[in-house]
Fold:
Amino acid sequence: MSFFDYFRAQKKKSAQVAKERLQVIVARERVTRNGPDYLPLLQEELLAVIRKYVEVDNDAVTIQLDREGDCEVLELNITLPDGRGR
Amino acid sequence: MSFFDYFRAQKKKSAQVAKERLQVIVARERVTRNGPDYLPLLQEELLAVIRKYVEVDNDAVTIQLDREGDCEVLELNITLPDGRGR
Structure:
């Protein structure tokens, strides 16, 4: 399965109207429990990078942080006004 | 399907030995062809953000940029030495 399938399936689930969408996912798999837990810290910095290129309203962003066993996934979903780039 | 399934399935495919893995995905769905194509520009900036938290060797990164219809996906796969954080 390609990531395209995953990305498109999510759209169907949320039954959104046609809008430009941007999804940023950071997934980490640890072998040991060593090292700092930096995924939560990344979200603001990633948004700052995205904002250099497109206008992102705060209420257009949903952020989710999930853990499952040794995997941790940070997911940012952003809805953009049609084709609005900087 | 959750993203965890996608993330884990990729590991099996590549049959890697146990190492810490980090995957960054930026997916964009456009409604129109308007606006600049900024996904390729993001890769260096995203890596710079990650490098604030973990040491990433250049040869530990594979970058892929794919298009399929109105979707565009930038994927960074990073292999890290066991639990090596900054």
About this structure: Helices of chain A lie at 3-14, 39-50. Residues 3-14 of chain A form the longest helix (12 residues).
